[in-house]
Fold these 2 entries.
Entry 1:
Amino acid sequence: MLSYLRNLSMYRLMLYYLRALIAAAVVLSFFEILPYTWWHILAILFYLIAVCFTANQIFARLFKVKTNYESQFITAEILTLIIGPYFSIPLLLPLTVAGVAAMASKYIFVYQKRHIFNPAAAGALAMALTAHEIASWWVGNLYLLPVIAIGGIIMMWKLRWWHLSLTFLLSYLILLPVSFINLASLENLKYPFATIISPLAFFAFVMLVEPLTAPGRKKLRIIYGLGTAFILVLYQRFVSAPYTLELALLSGNILGRFLDPKPTIILKFQKKLEVAKNIYAFYFEPLKQFRFIPGQFLEWQLQHPHADSRGTRRWFTISSSPTQPEIILTTKFAENGSTFKSALKQLSQGDELTAVGPAGDFVLPPDKSRKLAFIAGGIGVTPFVSIINDLLDTNQLRDIILLYAAKTADEFAFQNAFSEAKKIGVNAVYIPTDEQGFITPQTIKEKILDWPERLFYVSGPEPMVEAYEKMLSSMGIKNIKRDYFPGYEEPIK
């Protein structure tokens, strides 16, 4: 099960999460546990899918950009869960306004080729202001709260953004006494806590965490969550409007863009090189230069027909240095791999794709005297390549020991760079696991004599990162930074 979830793209997992909520609502309504008509929910869903899909295709052609296949369905399903759920012919106009406005917001309100606002929130607000239909946020009820919570836990496990959702929820609850809500009136409700937390949980786990509108670094996301909670409380306290959730999220989106104005980057493919067995480095020319910190990643988008369940987007670390003119993506290919990697391998010179970022906190500490230990598993070496090449190019001295594990000796990539890095204090130790076994506490103690003094960085496939993090913790090592590769994939069975 965990392996299956790891291999799903975040967008595909969000689709399944939303569909589980809709399915649960339909079943509970069919058995009259929820006070809704089950087919009304489905009618709204299918109509919104049709509107969002059609509008998205039209706007994409007008603005001459490629569409993201999954995002139009995600938006339609979010709108389904917050509008209605009572279907009627007069509701068709507000639903049309919501769907069209949601899709239009992705193409009209754009900064550096990336949309500013959450499409569903933009659509719901446009519907309220023009068609005078207010989003009910009916998904926020006691009976659906367990599904919201379980799905939210899975999403946060996948995305690793607990800090964002929990910062928002806790901040809002702390600030609740100063909001417009009459707390005394809640005493008359049977489940007052569920009344407050259910819609907010959906807001925090589904809408607030949209990667394209949230900041790319952890500290900034915490500020974003806190700021959005504060904005929501201010709106509820001083704005007498029934759409404060939508207003707060859209205002928070502006805050997020101010905190982290990460652009959409257009990259032109130049060439690919095999740097180790089944490992290829893809060289791209950015049409406009951008800044990144060694160790950060981009969210790459490669539209291709018949995409599998992992979708058309991946997170890959930039394996080049900021001093290099090219942006390099390095990845491993397996038999029966994903459609994304098949499309990547078939790129021709001059082909373009887009990426969003940079993002991530897997970067060097500011203190240059800090002793460091890097543990890389397989393709997890890529952030260390970027870091070490940057140190070489800028002639920075750092005390770093790299333990680089791969299945066989011919799978070690970038050995020339690591050999050259000896002159700046970087020592690489190669561990072919088919001969020496996996890295163990004994290995660390033998190869890193002063291991208790070092800050450890661990990067690679997620199961490996989790295993090494537990191992290091069992050794009493507390200073650990971890990274994992959603772009890494096992062969599809």
Note: Residues 485-493 have pLDDT under 50 and may be disordered.
Entry 2:
Amino acid sequence: MAIPEEFPISRRGLLAGGAVSVAAVSAAGSPDARAAVEKAPSRPPTARVAFHVNNTAHELELDTRTTLLDALREHLRLTGTKKGCDHGQCGACTVIVDGRRINSCLSLAVMHDGDKITTIEGLGLPGNLHPMQQAFVEHDGYQCGYCTPGQICSAVAVLEEIKAGIPSHVTADLSDPPSVTRPELRERMSGNICRCGAYSNIVDAIVDVAGVKA
């Protein structure tokens, strides 16, 4: 029987390949193979990480695959930082690391040895709110509240970015250095998604804290 061109393998090659597969399966069941499996480490590799979170020093022994988000939530019990999409698309897990906002779900904890990390709990707590937290309350900048910690951390960092003259995609069309305008703020906050749609109120809160008319 002729072999179609799209399957360029001979009957002899097919039989040889099958023999190799059978041999490999048989070898896996041999005493030597079983011994190698038994000697293999059963626990994932870990690493010791030391960082400051909300001005408190912490040292953790973590699976090297642990994200910063999971280190904060599962190991330090700082559950204000939310796990939303877990793919860096919603911004609910935003925290501030050495003054820069990041999606903590996309960053491994072991990458932050020695860093200074601020979560929503480090900005302010009931009775001693950060001005941005207070503005979100006054301007009704949240509804379900799930995205709010990430929104607030991002908003605090955004004003620092503007103050430092760090450009955004729309800065060139507005002013140099960048100013606190609503288009500028919407652009800079675009990585933080609010499914409830409180975007205009969020911008109102940021403008209030910035102390400008925009």
Note: The chain has two domains: 45-123, 124-214.
